[in-house]
Amino acid sequence: MKDLQTLRQEIDAVDRDMAALFTARMQAVKEVAAYKRAHGLPVSDAAREAAVIERGAANVPAELRPYYISLLRCVLDVSKQYQRRLDADGEGEEA
Question: Phi and psi of 36, rounded to 5°?
Answer without folding.
Answer: -60, -40
